[in-house]
Amino acid sequence: MHVTVPPITERVRSLAATAVPTHVSLDGSAHAARGGVDDAGRPLLLVKPGDPLHGVPDADDVVVTVDLAACRTLGGADQARGLLKVHGWAQAVPRELVREAAVAVAGRCPDEALFAAVEGGPAGSRLFRVDVGYVIYLTGQESGMLDAEDYLGAGPDPLLDAAERMLGHVNESHRDQLQHAMRVLLGHPVPDVWLWELDRYGATVRSGIEDPTLIRLPWPSPVDGPAELERALACLLCPHGSAPGA
Predict the structure, then answer these.
(1) How far apart are CA 19 and CA 83, in angstroms?
(2) For a surface tag, which of 53, 154, 185, 191 has the fewest beta carbons within 10 Å of its beta carbon?
(3) pLDDT in tens, 65-83
């Protein structure tokens, strides 16, 4: 059967890879959170003095739920793509891995407090990693739960970084061309269009901001690399040319 969308495990891992922590819940209360996600999909939390986790000893772990929000900026406003709730156990990042964790966090959440976390002073900021128990996801019309084995055993779209660069370029410089292509493909005007998702299985176009419609446009077959993805996207933007993925 022809696959037109990513498997949900890959979809959730792709969202996590582009998400940032917004809240962490522990001991029955929720607090604002900052941080990122490591290559395995585990939340990383930048914990500053005064935060509830700051005094937890290095060898201890604490049951937490971390909210991860994945957004896309359209016309200067952030629009939610998905929300993940990662339930698991927070523990201080081992000293030998702190620098690597700080680099991962800096890519999503630049903060001068990361320098203090790397230096490791007793009164400075600290980095915690959340070992995943399960993940609840809410994205578009889809919702559900993944256990740790399914979540950690999957990976994000292998073309994610290239796809995000291409998507950003189209939304910044080629929206008129995208709008024309959608009018040709659908046979009627499509207002206020943006490229919403781009992956090895196809593209999703969003029409409208307040009450959006999502239009999925699959490739004839999954693409294998950045060059093929770029060709597929070029064919989408020029619907009278060759077919995507050719």
Answers:
(1) 9
(2) 191
(3) 999 999 999 988 999 999 9
